[in-house]
Amino acid sequence: PIYNINITPLFYFNDRHRYYNIKIIQSDMDQDIIIKFCIVGEPAVGKTSMLCQYIHKKFDEKVRPTIGCDFSTKLKSTIDGKPVRLQLWDIAGQERFNAVSKMYLRGALGNSQINLGCVIVCSSTERSTLDETLKWKKIIEDNSDYDNDTNIPCLLVQNKCDLISSDVPEEFQKKSFLDDFAKTHGFCGFVHTSAKDNKNIE
Predict the structure, then answer these.
(1) If you compute the radius of gyration of the chain from its CA atoms, what whole number of angstroms results?
(2) Which residue has the higher pLDDT, 146 or 89?
(3) Is 52 helix (H, G, I), strand (E, B) or coil?
(4) How far apart are CA 202 and CA 199, in angstroms?
């Protein structure tokens, strides 16, 4: 596949951190099916570790926090003989980068002609990160240009399931609880994952 990539500076946070406007323009010769996923959630829930495991098949316990947005692509199997290319947008979760994160979300969600999906991640170790998934879901809905009667599919993911006690899991860690939570709040589904153990990542 052939892509033209246009990267221009938007503004400078400081001398070290710069934010860019990234436009990926598909060539007329490119017949890939594009599916775009935004991965959002609170800091330290394991979003970047999940993507690292998914793309590179490795786990790094010392992964650095995302600043603004990290962008990756992965070529999957085919649909009707056409390659499927995933665009993966890893959006920063730190509160101090909220304005930047929303800017990147608007860019990622701004084209309703592309197949879109969102993965909203929480942690099995922190109940508050589950509650905050509703904040992220609203941010996604507020920053997309989909029609009012069309919602972008949002998958609820609870990462770090390797840290759940097999003897006495807490209520918010139980599959039955999370299934009900997902249905009640309009998620398209729920899954437990472990970036460390590569569970349910693929």
Answers:
(1) 17
(2) 89
(3) helix
(4) 8
Place of tokens 């905050």: 132
Q: Determine the Cα–Cα distance for residues 2 and 30; give it in Å rounded to an integer.
A: 6
Q: Is 131 left (phi over 0), alpha (psi -120 to 50) or beta?
A: alpha
Place of tokens 């999957």: 76
Rounded CA separation 155/179 (Å)? 11
Q: What is the DSSP letter of 56?
A: H
Task: Give strand pairing partners of 126.
Answer: 123
The CA-atom distances, in angstroms, between 63 and each of 36, 44, 49, 146 are 23, 10, 7, 34
Distance CA 39, CA 155 (A): 10
5-24 residue pLDDT tens: 333 334 433 444 444 444 44
Q: How far apart (Å, rounded) are the C-alpha atoms in residues 13 and 23?
A: 20
Burial of 128 (0-12, 13-18, 19+ CB in 10 A): exposed
Q: Is the pTM of this model over 0.85?
A: no
Give the orientation angle of helix 133-142 with respect to helix 98-109, to 10 degrees. Answer: 50
The DSSP result for 132-152, as a single string, is THHHHHHHHHHT----TT-PP
